[in-house]
């Protein structure tokens, strides 16, 4: 390498360490941000990647570097990100199993809650300011415990059906099992190098982990022993893929995974009888014509016309309403996939970049008094909430909001749905309240001008709403869900998501699953 080239390479390396390493990892293997490797960037053309560095990326924490780096420096960083790492780090059976830490052996802790609070009305609050988790008593609206978490937890923590255990996933692959009744971390394992999220099976026996790196879906048992690694690629094994997300579909006794780089959706059965059902046969325990499962913990692939980056289940878990993040400007970016027909059955009219994973549903009466189930989704790119009729798949209303938002929440006992505008510079401090009957915005809350205000969760009975003042010296601001008056503040270090045990395990229609 000539001297000039060497100097350029070392500048690029220095720029990477200064501007990129904190989020994407000093070794480019990912951290709070995704891994920057040619495989992971396959769907992004280089000029687009340069634009992302210059202008930032909507809906993420990726800032704009256009003011700090020259066009040549940006180009050099992109070339660096598209250079393969050799040898690629391996994270397979040996590495996963060796990483497992057990702090309390199964069965060694008492089988009843070691506190007086209602175990069904506890909240788990992720505080990303100092990477801690707080446990709150949802009746007294007060913390009962706080502990250090792994670095950069992301996605919803997932509970076992009895609410006793909760599993957290960190962006760098750690899965943590926490005993809610004994308030103890009991086991941990590193299931990947760069992880999206985790799901817990409806029978509480399995944990599925969706990875970006390596390209795998990892199945653990409930004690975090490795059960199976499913390498993720297309049916010919030619193109491997990151997993966008995995969710539990309890009524189907399966995990459903969305893939980022292959146009397929995967369904992995955890039905213990799955091996007894020959592939291609109609199975009797859940009769559906043409449905079959290819055995226990094996993926059943459905081929799609488009990628599925983000999705929402219908109540029966038979359909997923999904969207790709390919073309934020396209008018029709959504699809409905029936998991038994194993194909797209409808298009969804969803402009911008809908965030279906944050969708919620409720029963709504139209002008003729006819009851319908509607689904509402925020939009990461535009200030609007799309309301979709879940029978006809038509968009019945687009509600204009202050700005692009990330999350939505409601509760069966509340007439209001809450949404934020946290992706907007001007209105990130404003929460808007939608009347679920009239589909109109009826109130706005801006408790601390200029400070990010987003993500709410209701108490078990739906009487109070806990909202995040999303700042390092932030707070949970608690509102009366009916009068919308503030009732209390609990100081917190950048509280992100919060999750109520009851709402989660009963799969309340107002919260994420
Ligand atoms: Fe998330 C959930 C994907 C950026 C905070 N986010 C999820 C889930 C997915 C997802 C698939 C559902 C997981 C589940 O329920 O287990 N998130 C993505 C992205 O693709 C995106 C846009 C880009 C990325 O960086 O990966 C992204 N997410 C963010 C953020 O920048 C947020 C605001 C801050 C952070 O901590 O990283 C963020 N995501 C969250 C939260 C949830 C979440 C708080 C859980 C929501 C819930 O209430 O269940």
Automatic annotation (TrEMBL):
InterPro entries referenced in this protein's UniProt entry, alphabetically: Cyt_c-like_dom (IPR009056), Cyt_c-like_dom_sf (IPR036909), Cyt_C_IC (IPR008168), Cyt_cd1_C_sf (IPR003143), Haem_d1_sf (IPR011048), Host-pathogen_enzymatic-act (IPR051200)
Domain Cytochrome c: 7-85
Keywords noted in UniProt: Electron transport, Heme, Iron, Metal-binding, Transport
The keyword Magnesium is assigned to this record: no
Gene Ontology MF, one: heme binding
PANTHER family: DIHYDRO-HEME D1 DEHYDROGENASE, PROTEIN NIRF
Protein name: Cytochrome C oxidase Cbb3
